[in-house]
Amino acid sequence: MPSIFLTASRARFVTAAVFPVVVMSLGMGVSLAHAAGPSNAGPEAPFLAENDDAMTRMMDAMSIKPSGDVDHDFVGMMLPHHQGAIDMAQAELRYGHNEQLRRIAQEIVVEQQQEIIAMRLALGQPLPPSAPAPDQAQPPSSPASPHAVPPEASSTKTMSMPMSSMRMKQESK
């Protein structure tokens, strides 16, 4: 029977893996609680709905059964966490208007994709399929954002890999 008490090292692992999600959830909870008011049907509604879906998918996917392999479990929780960040950043790119935040959202997409690749490589897992560049994100059923670059204007569909990941892969050979 597993112990209900956490060892110090497991507590640090759980804290490191879960803390960012809790912080994001609290922030989203405040935003979504505000959205539940009468102004819910306004222009922000599609953004809020998309973010709520992203948070739900992320939280569900992060609820994994421990495998007994700390590295595998860490990656099992971090991959959906990173994908959730990508999904939320893409919603900002679709609906946001602040250029500084849109640039940050683009960076989040690229950096989180790179970290997903690095974690998968570290465990010898297959890489995800390449995704459109962050400035190409379009809402599923709405017209193009005035800030988005039309797909025909950019053919960038590759994902770059951080140098540290490439070194890590080469050193493991």
TrEMBL record:
Residues 1-35 form the signal peptide. It comes from the Bacteria. Keywords: Signal. It holds the Pfam family DUF305. This is DUF305 domain-containing protein. Residues 125-173 are annotated as: Disordered. The keyword Signal applies. Residues 133-167 have a biased composition (Low complexity). Residues 54-120 form the DUF305 domain.
